[in-house]
Amino acid sequence: MGVEPENTLRSFVHAEQAGMDVIELDLHLSKDGALAVMHDAEVDRTTDGTGPIAEKTLAELRELDAGQGERVPVFEQVLDAVRSPLQAEIKDVAAARALAEVMRRRDLVDRVEVSSFHDEAVAEIAQLVPGVRTVLIASRWKSDVVDRAKAVGAATLALNIRRLTLEVVEQAHAEGVKVIGWVVNTQDHLRLVRALGLDGATTDFPEIRRAGRFTA
């Protein structure tokens, strides 16, 4: 989203061409049950429309401009537009159920990792899709965050790099839980990723990976 319209096919293709390991996207259910790719619950920030996604049909969402003429994609379109592994963030249990149906139908366990801020959504997708890899996301957390990840079967924690400490990383690794940091958009944050021994990082700027090899 740092270089192309957020959550669009154009941005995903750019990420793939830049050589990123995984492409992250966000999923909400439309009024008629489509898995719309958008970060916010409302369309206002990233399109020329207004109102909640949940109150719009897929046809209505497709009429919106998501930036530079891009349209709001659905999850299936992304699957076909790029070949990269995907990390799909779900916002609630209902989205988990819709995503599970697509994952089973298209045999996506090896390609798609599922993440969420909501423990119950992570637990739900794990129950519906045997073998799925899951990620529990947190911006602010308490001392039980590793226990929460283990309780819902999440193999990875995605934590706010601004609040991440070595203590949490060491605790997670001791319990066999991986840790990725978000959002890593500066060289200082990239150095922190390496200093903390993180297993990965999320960025809005694919080029930071190439630059970081020489300066971080």
TrEMBL record:
InterPro entries (UniProt xref): GP_PDE_dom (IPR030395), PLC-like_Pdiesterase_TIM-brl (IPR017946)
Pfam families cross-referenced by the UniProt entry: GDPD (PF03009)
Highest taxon listed in the record's lineage: Bacteria
GP-PDE domain: residues covered: 1-213
PROSITE patterns associated with the record: GP_PDE (PS51704)
Residues in the signal sequence: none
Protein name: Glycerophosphodiester phosphodiesterase
